[in-house]
């Protein structure tokens, strides 16, 4: 498939790109910095908000890996994902979002989330809430083929690629060790699985180390 990855120099994005290339896909990386720190041979220097419809024409999938911890930029989680959705509306190109875990539900009634729990770190609330807002905005759209992939609660940047992971739905799911964890490497593999199987249209799903 032809896959575009935006915000391509981020840590998760780089692993998604590497995995996609390893699986034989045609990958184009989009980043706002001059340096291409990815394994993609095709690199386009362009900020997400400067992208136009023609930039994304011909791609089967666009992976949105935008993320920020800057307090003044939290709104951009929604602004950037909605901009990409606008560019892809009424097309067959799928939009895959590198999501957050804070919005995963912790009860059957779906009234409580990981971020609303008493033990959730206060410093993480702004980004968790911002990413939840972006998900809620996507839920309102029926004009674009989006899928939002939440990682487990413990998202381990330098964790190894084990290949042992499982998918779940909207609720926080624990493994046999009563843990919710996954490495960036396994998350990237899971993202490619979702891309390749073509399922979960207009859905949020999650993945955790099995």
TrEMBL record:
Residues 8-197 form the NAD(P)-binding domain. CDD domains: BVR-B_like_SDR_a. GO terms for molecular function: oxidoreductase activity, acting on the CH-NH group of donors, NAD or NADP as acceptor. InterPro entries: NAD(P)-bd_dom (IPR016040), NAD(P)-bd_dom_sf (IPR036291), Polyketide_Oxido-like (IPR051606). It holds the Pfam family NAD_binding_10. This is NAD(P)H-binding protein. It comes from Sharpea porci.
